[in-house]
Design brief:
The chain is built from 21 helices and nine strands. The chain is mainly alpha-helical and 614 residues long.
């Protein structure tokens, strides 16, 4: 790849600290382009913690193993020993800031909310819980707990241990409360096939122009295991009793917040008050993808190996994992439904059941489709089809193509897709809006994810090339002035048609870019792909080289002069190494075998010249 994720992440670390740390006050400054809120401040911290907890070479929890370039990037926070202590203080301030005096964690959208009407959002609306905050809190809390788990093992002073324990309690409490919030925001929207929702859904997925009844029957057949599993949804929201009718379809996922009428969750975790819900009892694609990505962290290998969840949290996690599986199965089926040459997700743009269509929705659905393909061990061909959709989206969104004047595609980048939060009007004078504008950053992340999943060298190369081109686009959108330089987002740097310029970073956007870079770094840290053709070629070269080497030994070359003995010694080392790495690195093995063949041929040529001269 032309992109260098290690260097880019170090630059982001340096820029994040420069933008956020007050050297004079020795204090972290929350907020950026938007005023501080529970989501943006978590995103700001995750710009540091995500690489530190998910990329092995970026770890900060073992000060004696912290690399020098990491320390230089975070120098304002102190030396290798002081950096973890400083981060603990910053994190405690975050958890204090977003907790009520009684300890109840707060998950409001606050300054991220806007309004559909002329009036500003009311105070009650600004305090509404939102799924984005639940999801970001799950990710942040798990990162903090994992960071502290390792740091505790090297903490010698009792004072440091007490600080770690206090922060662990805060992070664990917020994690439990966020899990409860996600359980109360899950929703299943059931509707008649003849309703507007039913007509919209069947039209979107019916790529073969089949009769509606035939489509409905096929959908329900493909989802029969999913439908049966809804009986296991016993706590929180999402219980349904009218899903078995053959004349009904449904959608599953997460609403924008706690749904109306969601019952409280009985738990012995100190989660505090569980507020009533205002959100529409229907799924939103954006919040569904955000929730699904966060829930994956709960049952990741790192969470399991470090033992980050207590017994009650494991119970809540199992309930969320069931909802994750139902959602993944549903959306994967919808995205790839039917026997036609074109999947529904390939019919760009995706149209939601409320008749809203956008390329951004297609990008979201590709994420859910890939999770389904991975679960079902999808082939490289199937993953490649999703990759082709991403290439088309990059083109349509003018990420890899030059825009024309008054290009409507620019609205995907600024102001972004506006999502009305149905039900929020019950807490104020007008309905709230949620703005999502991270199209290019999300495209970058999804491209690197698929690139890491494809086992075909040509297919992976195609995806990595798209990732490189998307990164070039993102790199041009960095801020170039002020403390936030090298952070995001300045869309006017790419799209001259846009007029609004920013002088402060968007943590919302920057954190998405960091996610993509972390995914890329972990992908590049895996062994290279093994091509069967290259493996066979390397094996043939190695077989010939070993045979010629044995012939040289048989002829007595090993007893010849020192130069010939040295040549054969090097050849022996190369052959041994080539045989060792052949299964994992056939290309390198082939090169080593070729070097042996060249050296042996030079010996044979020299011997022939001596014979002819004599």
């Amino acid at each position: 790849m032309r992109m260098q994720p290690r260097q880019q992440l170090l630059e982001i670390w340096n820029a994040t600290v420069r933008s956020s740390w007050s050297e004079r006050e020795k204090k972290w400054k929350f907020g950026g382009r938007d005023a501080p809120n529970s989501i943006g401040d978590a995103e700001q911290l995750l710009c540091i913690l995500t690489p530190a907890t998910k990329v092995e070479s970026f770890k900060l929890d073992r000060p004696d193993e912290t690399a020098e370039d990491m320390i230089r990037a975070l120098r304002p926070l102190g030396n290798a020993t002081e950096i973890p202590k400083t981060l603990i203080g910053i994190l405690r301030e975050y958890f204090d800031r977003y907790s009520d005096p009684d300890g109840t964690p707060l998950f409001s959208g606050s300054s991220y909310f806007s309004s559909t009407g002329p009036a500003q959002p009311s105070k009650e609306q600004l305090r509404l819980d939102i799924v984005d905050s639940f999801a970001m809190s799950v990710t942040l809390s798990l990162s903090v707990l994992g960071f502290l788990k390792v740091l505790r093992s090297v903490a010698n002073r009792e004072e440091n241990r007490r600080e770690i324990e206090a922060l662990e309690f805060q992070a664990s409490t917020r994690l439990s409360a966020a899990m409860v919030g996600l359980l109360r925001s899950f929703t299943v929207n059931v509707f008649d096939i003849d309703s507007a929702y039913g007509q919209a859904l069947t039209t979107m997925i019916n790529q073969e122009n089949l009769p509606q009844r035939q489509v409905v029957s096929a959908v329900r057949r493909d989802l029969r295991e999913t439908i049966a599993s809804f009986r296991e949804v016993l706590i929180g929201s999402g219980q349904v009793g009218d899903i078995d009718s053959p004349d009904r379809l449904f959608e599953v996922g997460w609403s924008w917040g706690i749904v109306t009428g969601a019952p409280p969750i009985e738990t012995n975790e100190p989660v505090g008050q569980q507020p009533k819900g205002f959100a529409q009892d229907a799924p939103y694609l954006y919040f569904t993808v955000i929730a699904v990505d966060a829930i994956e962290d709960l049952f990741s290998e790192r969470t399991r190996v470090l033992g980050l969840l207590n017994e009650e949290q494991q119970r809540l996690s199992r309930a969320l994992q069931l909802r994750w599986e139902l959602t993944r199965a549903y959306w994967s089926t919808m995205a790839t439904f039917g026997q036609a040459q074109r999947w529904p997700v390939e019919d760009i743009p995706w149209r939601t059941t409320d008749e809203d269509a956008s390329d951004y929705y297609t990008l979201l659905v590709t994420s859910l489709a890939v999770k389904g393909l991975v679960q079902e061990r999808g082939s490289d061909i199937e993953l490649g089809r999703i990759g082709t959709v991403l290439e088309e989206l990059a083109n349509r969104a003018r990420v890899t193509r030059r825009p024309f004047d008054t290009d409507p595609a620019l609205s995907l980048h600024a102001p972004g897709v506006l999502v009305p939060l149905v039900g929020s009007e019950d807490a104020g004078d007008s309905r709230l809006l949620w703005t999502v504008s991270e199209f290019a950053a999300l495209l970058f992340q999804r491209t690197t994810v698929i690139g890491g999943l494809i086992n075909d060298a040509e297919g992976r190369s195609r995806m990595l090339d798209l990732a490189d081109r998307t990164w070039e686009h993102l790199n041009r959108r960095r801020l170039d002035k002020g403390p936030g330089r090298n952070l995001w987002d300045q869309p006017t740097s790419v799209f001259g048609q846009l007029t609004t310029r920013y002088d402060k970073p968007s943590w919302y956007y920057t954190q998405r870019v960091v996610q993509g870079l972390v995914t890329t770094a972990n992908m590049l840290n895996r062994p290279p792909l093994r091509s069967p053709r290259l493996g066979n070629y390397a094996f043939d070269l190695l077989t010939e080289a070993e045979h010629l080497y044995d012939m040289e030994l048989l002829s007595g070359a090993g007893d010849a002069g020192p130069r010939m003995r040295e040549t054969l010694k090097v050849a022996s080392i190369h052959l041994s190494r080539a045989r060792e790495i052949l299964p994992e690195r056939p290309g390198t093995a082939a090169v080593l075998a070729a070097q042996v063949l060249i050296a042996l041929d030079e010996l044979a040529a020299a011997r022939r010249d001596v014979t002819e001269a004599g």
